[in-house]
Amino acid sequence: MTLPIVDKIAYLDAIKDKTVSVAEPWVEAATKAKGLSMDQPAAGEEWLAGPFTVLWYLKDLRTSLVRLASGIPILHGYESTTSPSGQVVVDVFPKSFDERVLFSGVTAEVWMDPQVTEENLEDTTAEFYRTRDPRSRVTVTLGAGNVASIPFLDVLYALFVEGNVVVLKMNPVNDYLGPFFETIFDGLIADGFVRITYGGAEVGAYLSTHDGVDSIHITGSATTYNAIVFGTGAEGDANREGDRPKNSRPVSAELGGAAPFIVVPGAWSNKDIRYQAEHLVSQKLNNSGFNCIAAQVLVLPRTWDQKDQFLDAVRSAMAEAEDRDPYYPGSSDRAARAVNQSDEVERFGDDHPRYLVTGLDAADSQEPWFTKEIFGPALAVTELPGADPASFLANAVEFANEYLYGTLGANIVVDPKTARANADALDQAVADLRYGTVAVNAWTGVGYFLGRCPWGAFPGHARDDIQSGTGVVHNALMFTKAEKSVIRGPFAEAPRSFLKGEFHLAPKLVYLITNKQAHVIGEKLIDYCDEPSKAKIASIAASALRG
Q1: What are phi and psi of 199, to 5 degrees?
Q2: Residues whose CB is less than 8 angstroms from the CB of residue 189 and which lie 6 or more positions away in sequence, other chains included
Q3: Of 23, 25, 182, 446, which sits 20 to 30 A from 500 (CA to CA)?
Q4: Within a 13 Å sphere around the CA of 260, how many CA atoms are in the beta-carbon half?
Q5: Structural domains of the chain, with CATH
Q6: C-alpha to C-alpha distances, 352 to 15, 34, 453, nearest whole angstrom
Q7: Peptide bond before 94: cis, by omega within 30 degrees of 0?
Q8: Helix, strand, coil share of the chain (percent; to 5)
Q9: In this predicted model, what pLDDT tens digit does every residue of 293-338 receive, in sequence order?
Q10: Residue 45: in which H helix or E strand, if any?
Q11: Model pTM greater than 0.85?
Q12: For 50-73, what is the HEC assignment?
């Protein structure tokens, strides 16, 4: 899309207005498809991961385009520092009073490739808009079936950051969203910049090999990526083993992984233990467990004297979680196969079970729970040595980097007192983790919501061992040489957090599956995004306090 930027901004404004207009029926359709109702707190997941994420991204993307049109550097007003590893780090969130209230206690940084310096940082943004006579490409986006905003955001990124025109193939699992997307993108569709199509793997294969297609983006599994790049069956396996691509088009991909949840040993209160158990289980069971960024492996310190107490709290949180419809095709069979390969399995729930698998040997590099993504409501547990928090963190980083499949996201939980006493070790752990998003006392999924952060795998996966993928999306600040995003959040909810030296206003996190106001907050956030006001922020805060 080589249109004048002011025309692109006009399209964004129209997209925003139409997203607001269809937000409620969009969420209603999604909740129905996933076996939920609009008055359940779990419906908050569809408000938050659907239209809210889109609207929040549109706001940031519009700001970047306005700056480009006005000749203002995209990073004007963004502070940068240097990490312990010597990398340039850009502080990207929060940047306004509203953000500090709505996401109280949450911060986000983007860490640059080591080649980036303070002097050339701005030059590594907005590559398409810095190119003289840029060439637009035709991109095929193969949409994800699990989270409503994924295909939407992928289209926006291809259009407005990469400058391409897009064919979106809806996933059969959530193609009920197609009519809403057609309404929202109607102007771009009418003007020939977007097409939306439907069908299964055969349609995806046709589009991926069409002579008129220049590039491909997928969100899904490594199996799908390999089929596109190398082919299928024995021929495809041979092509991949020999790194002989059958499809030479550029392919970007976001493919998930076995995400760790690393617990740093400290002195936790009973309320801390309960809260962080809910935090972990929420990271696992959000969206029925069908998230590429779901926590998969709980990494515990072997000698932590509260280890068993924390595991018991995890069991309780798993048991108390409501049964959810395993709406994603084949999920029940996949979960059953996964747990059948393990000796120590605990089952929770009735018709739609949830699983906890313990006793895994962290030294077993071939352990399937470490080497494959389990796309469903099952959590594994392993233990690592470490006589103190610093040595445990070093061991946990090595384990996550060397043993766990994929590099999309890694989570660390550490109490404030321990974090302060081991600040250098914690900083080093964040620097050393080779993941596209690292979260400390937050879920890496927050990095998905915060559209200024690039979203994707840690750079460097070879196409014949793609793991969590290649390339990024979202990225409203249009970084071209970002390495990772780092999200930090509160260890405890307010006001309990004040006693721990954390000064923020956040009560229970909105994405916790125990938040009883999540659906109310989600709907109010749409209204806020439509026309922001301090009164609406106050209303959202009041609902959050009741959560």
Answers
A1: 135, 180
A2: 182, 195, 196
A3: 446
A4: 34
A5: 259-500 (3.40.309.10)
A6: 38, 13, 35
A7: yes
A8: 45, 15, 40
A9: 999 999 999 999 999 999 999 999 999 999 999 999 988 788 888 8
A10: helix 44-47
A11: yes
A12: HHHHHHHHHHHHHHHHHHHHHCCC
